[in-house]
From TrEMBL:
Biological-process GO terms, alphabetical: proteolysis
SUPFAM superfamilies reported in the protein's UniProt record: Cysteine proteinases (SSF54001)
This protein's record includes keyword Glycoprotein: no
Protein name: NlpC/P60 domain-containing protein
GO molecular function terms attached to this record: cysteine-type peptidase activity
Similarity field: Belongs to the peptidase C40 family.
Stored PANTHER family: NLP_P60 DOMAIN-CONTAINING PROTEIN-RELATED (PTHR47359:SF3), PEPTIDOGLYCAN DL-ENDOPEPTIDASE CWLO (PTHR47359)
Name of one Pfam family that matches: NLPC_P60
Length: 176
């Protein structure tokens, strides 16, 4: 009888600690560190690319620090803002807000770079350095298929669809 009680206690303890483990993993997932090395389903990246293409073709002005756009000239987004909002609207809230952290998320792209776009998948993020320091990129564009990408370039210009370019290219990260 004692043995049976001990066994039940052991099983119960294991069950509780397994649950606590899952909960603490979920808690940590909400934090930035756990969204590094993430690999989402490609459908999330396809949806993010479609959102980004929408904003890049609806008259969304570049606004430094901006993350929302009414289109037709209202609101605005910056280069990492369109990435941030597009992934969130595609259902992934783990994307961070700025270029200086987005470049650490996901995994290295395979077969996609500024000079060779043959393996670029929708949603891949290509990072650039225009006067950046310490190896931390200061510009990001999102691939949307083929050799095309979406970018919000600089004040006075709208977000737009462009060809992926190699000047000042640094690195590429894929979330899917
Ligand atoms: C991400 O992957 C790199 C290289 O495999 C590894 O060094 C790093 O610890 C990983 N980071 C996390 C948060 O898992
Ligand atoms: C581009 O990358 C692909 C792999 O994704 C490779 O097969 C091809 O040789 C590369 N082209 C050039 C010009 O480097």
């Amino acid at each position: 009888m004692k043995l049976i009680f001990s066994l039940i206690l052991v099983i119960f303890t294991l069950f509780v600690s397994a649950n606590a483990n899952v909960e603490s993993q979920v808690d940590r997932l909400a934090q930035f560190g756990e969204s590094m090395n993430i690999t989402l389903s490609q459908s999330v990246c396809n949806a993010a690319a479609a959102k980004a293409e929408h904003y890049a073709t609806c008259g969304c002005p570049y606004v430094w620090g901006g993350t929302s756009c009414g289109c037709g000239g209202s609101g605005g987004m910056d280069c990492s803002g369109i990435v941030y909002t597009s992934f969130r609207e595609a259902g992934w809230t783990g994307i961070t807000r700025t270029t200086t952290t987005q470049y650490k998320q996901g995994t290295a792209c395979s077969g996609c770079s500024g000079s060779n776009t043959s393996g670029c998948k929708a949603g891949d993020l290509l990072f650039y350095c225009f006067g950046c320091s310490g190896g931390v990129p200061d510009h990001v564009i999102m691939a949307i298929g083929g050799n095309r990408a979406v970018q919000c370039p600089e004040p006075g210009q709208d977000c737009s669809v462009i060809d992926i370019y190699s000047e000042n290219y640094m690195l590429c990260r894929s979330m899917c």
